[in-house]
Specification:
The chain is built from six helices and no strands. It is mostly helical. It is elongated, with a radius of gyration of 24 Å. The termini are far apart.
Length: 227
Amino acid sequence: MLNDNKKPKKVKDYSNPTGWQLFWRIQKECWRRMVTPYLMYLFMSLLLLALQAIVPDESTVLEIVLGSICIAIGAFFNAHLMYHTGILHYDNYLTGNIHRRNARLGIQSGGDHRPEREFRPWKGFYIGLLVGVPVIFFGVLAHYFYVTASVFFAMFAGWAIIPITWFGTGEGGVGMKYDPLWSLLFVLLPILVSGIAYLVGAYVERGRKLREEEREEAIKAAGKKKK
C-alpha cells in the first residue's frame, strides 16, 4: 500500500540539451575519454624513466632505442583506445540521426540519447590535445622553474621531456641543452594519433553498417523474387 503512494521517478531527458549544456557535456565527454590514453602514456613514461636510470650514461643509442619503444607502445594503446571511441561515437551518431528524424515526424523516441557522445571529425584531435595538456603545463613551468618542474615533468609526462635530454646537457653538464619548451612539439603525437585513430574507427564502423544494410536489402530483394 505504501509503495502505491510513491510518485514515479522522473526520468531525466538528456537528448535535447541547450547550446551551453551541450558544450559543457562535450567537454566532460572529451575529458573523460582522455583519461585512459593519458594513463597509458603515464605508465610508459614511468617505465621510460626507470630504463633511463638503469642504462649506463655512455649508452646513448640504447637509451634512444628503449625510450622510443616505450613511447611507441604508449602511442599504440592511445590509437587502440581512440579507435574504439570512434566506433562508439559513430554508433551514437547513427542513433542521434534516428532520434532527430523521429522528432521531425513528431514521434517520441525517448530521452536517453546523449548527443555529446556522437561522432564529430574534430573530437579525436581535441581529445588528443587534452592528453597533451600536462605536457603544455609542465613544459611552460619547466621553462621558468626548470629544477623543480622538470622532476614532475619527467614523472607525469616523461614521454615528452626525456627525449630532449638525448640531445645533450646544458653548460657544465647541468640541465638540458635545449629549452623545455621544445617538449611542446610532442603534443602533436597524441593529437595526430588520437585524431587519426578516431576517424579510422568511425569510418570502419560506417563501412560495416553500410555492408549490413546492403545484405539486408539483398535478402529482401531475394525474398521478393521468390514471391
